[in-house]
Design goal:
The chain is an all-alpha fold. It has one domain: Growth Hormone, Chain: A (Up-down Bundle), CATH 1.20.1250. The chain is about 80% helix and about 0% strand. The protein is built from 17 helices and no strands. The two termini are about 25 Å apart.
C-alpha cells in the first residue's frame, strides 16, 4: 500500500545515472517498512493457538503497529520538514530493525504487542518522508517514475514480508521470522544510505509551529478531508480482509498452513503490475472513474471468496488486492492534484488517517468474525466500501489536471 504527495511544477531534467540510483533507493525506502507492517498476518492462526487467544486479540499484533504509525505520522512529517529527508529516512529504517529483532525475544502476547507498537513508531519517518522526497526531487512531469518506484517497492515489501514470515516460521519458528526480517531491513537501510542522493529541492521549515498550522489548514480543505477519509477506508478494507481471511482459509475446506498462507500474499503482486497501467489509464478517465472501478473490482473479489473452492477464492484474493491498490493510486493522485504547501505535513496527515483505518480494520472486524465468521466480516467491509464510493462520486476529480 502506498501514498502520494503534491508536487511542484519544475522543468524535467534529462535522465542521468543518479535517476537510476534514486529510483532503486526510493523502491527500497518503500519496501523496508512494509516488510514489518504485516509480518504477523500469515502467523495469526498459529500464534492464536500458541498464546491461547482468539482472532480479535491476536490481531492486536497488527493493530499495535498500525496504531503507532497513525500516532507518529504527523510528527515525523514535521521533523523531516525541519531537519531534512535522507537522515530521517535512513535513521528510521535502521531503527526499525532493532524492535523487529527484539520481537523474537517475546515470551507473551503482551510483549509481542509492545515490540510491534515500537516498530510502528519508526515507520512514518520512512513512509511520509520518502513521499515528500519524491514530490520534491522529481519534476511534476516525471513524478510518475518516482511513484512507480514507491508503489512497486511497497508491494514487493508487503508481499516479501509475509512470504518470508510464513516460510521461516514453517521451516524453523516464528521467532526466526522476526530475526530474518530484521536483518533484511537493516541491510536495506544501509543500501538506502549508499544509493539515495541528497535532496536538491528541500526547503527547511524552521518554524515547527508553522508546520502544525499547515496541517490544520489541510483539515479545513473538504477535498483533502475526503481523500483522508478514503485513505482510512482503503486500509481498513485491506487490513481487515488480509487479517481475517487467514483464519477463514486455515479452516475446512481450505486447511492452508503457515507457509501456504504466506505464499497466498504473492497474489498482492497483481497490485504492483496493475498500478502503472491504472495510473496511465486514470490520466485519461479521471480519478473518480478510477476509484469506482477499483471499488467494483475488489467487491467482486470479496464475494468470490465465499465460494468454497480454493482456486476461486484465490482469484478473489487477487482481485481484492488489485482493486485496493488501484483505489489507493486514485486517492494519491487526487491528493497530488489538490494539496498545497508543507508536503511532509500533508503526507503526515494522510499517513495518520491511512493507518488509523488499518488499526480499526485489524481489530473491529474481529467482533464481526466472532459473531458470524467470514461472511459477517464481508458485510462490514462492503459497508465501508460503499462509503468510499459515495465520497469519490462527490469529491473526486472527473478528469486528471494536466501539468
Amino acid at each position: 500500500m502506498s501514498i502520494n504527495t503534491p508536487v511542484d511544477a519544475r522543468v524535467a531534467p534529462a535522465p542521468s545515472t543518479s535517476d537510476g540510483r534514486r529510483f532503486w533507493a526510493v523502491a527500497l525506502c518503500a519496501c523496508c517498512p512494509f516488510l514489518a507492517v504485516y509480518a504477523t498476518q500469515p502467523l495469526l492462526p498459529s500464534l492464536a493457538q500458541l498464546f491461547g487467544t482468539n482472532a480479535s486479540e491476536i490481531s492486536l499484533t497488527i493493530t499495535a503497529t498500525t496504531l503507532a504509525v497513525a500516532i507518529a505520522a504527523p510528527f515525523s512529517g514535521v521533523i523531516a520538514d525541519a531537519i531534512g529527508r535522507k537522515l530521517v529516512i535512513v535513521a528510521c529504517i535502521l531503527g526499525l530493525s532493532i524492535p523487529m529483532a527484539l520481537a523474537a525475544t517475546a515470551t507473551s502476547l503482551e510483549q509481542l504487542i509492545i515490540w510491534r507498537f515500537i516498530q510502528g513508531l519508526f515507520i512514518p519517518g520512512i513512509f511520509s518522508v520518502t513521499l515528500a522526497y519524491v514530490g520534491e526531487e522529481w519534476s511534476s512531469k516525471n513524478v510518475g517514475m518516482g511513484m512507480s518506484a514507491y508503489v512497486s517497492g511497497g508491494v514487493v515489501g508487503s508481499v516479501s514480508g509475509r512470504v518470508i514470515s510464513g516460510l521461516a516460521a514453517d521451516l524453523h519458528s516464528w521467532r526466526v521470522s522476526f530475526l530474518v526480517l530484521a536483518c533484511v531491513i537493516a541491510l536495506g537501510g544501509m543500501c538506502v544510505w549508499l544509493l539515495l542522493p541528497r535532496s536538491q529541492h528541500f526547503e527547511r521549515q524552521r518554524n515547527i509551529g508553522t508546520s502544525f498550522l499547515e496541517m490544520a489548514r489541510h483539515l479545513k480543505n473538504p477535498r483533502l478531508v475526503a481523500i483522508y477519509a478514503c485513505a482510512f477506508n482503503n486500509l481498513f478494507v485491506f487490513v481487515s480482509v488480509f487479517t481475517y481471511i487467514t483464519f477463514y482459509l486455515a479452516k475446512p475446506p481450505f486447511l492452508l498452513g503457515k507457509a501456504a498462507l504466506g505464499f497466498m500474499f504473492l497474489l498482492n503482486l497483481f497490485g504492483a503490475f496493475a498500478n502503472p497501467f491504472a495510473g496511465r489509464w486514470m490520466k485519461r478517465v479521471g480519478y473518480k472513474t478510477g476509484l469506482i472501478a477499483a471499488l467494483v473490482t475488489s467487491t467482486v473479489g470479496i464475494l468470490l471468496t465465499l465460494v468454497p473452492n480454493l482456486v476461486v477464492a484465490l482469484i478473489g484474493v487477487a482481485l481484492i488486492s488489485t482493486g485496493v491498490f488501484v483505489a489507493q493510486t486514485a486517492a494519491t493522485g487526487q491528493m497530488a492534484a489538490v494539496a498545497g504547501k508543507a508536503k511532509s505535513s500533508a503526507a503526515g496527515v494522510y499517513v495518520c488517517c491511512y493507518y488509523a483505518g488499518g488499526s480499526v480494520g485489524a481489530f473491529v472486524p474481529g467482533f464481526a468474525y466472532a459473531a458470524g465468521g467470514w461472511p459477517a466480516c464481508i458485510a462490514l467491509i462492503l459497508a465501508v466500501k460503499l462509503i468510499s464510493a459515495a465520497i469519490g462520486i462527490k469529491y473526486f476529480n472527473p478528469v486528471t489536471p494536466q501539468n
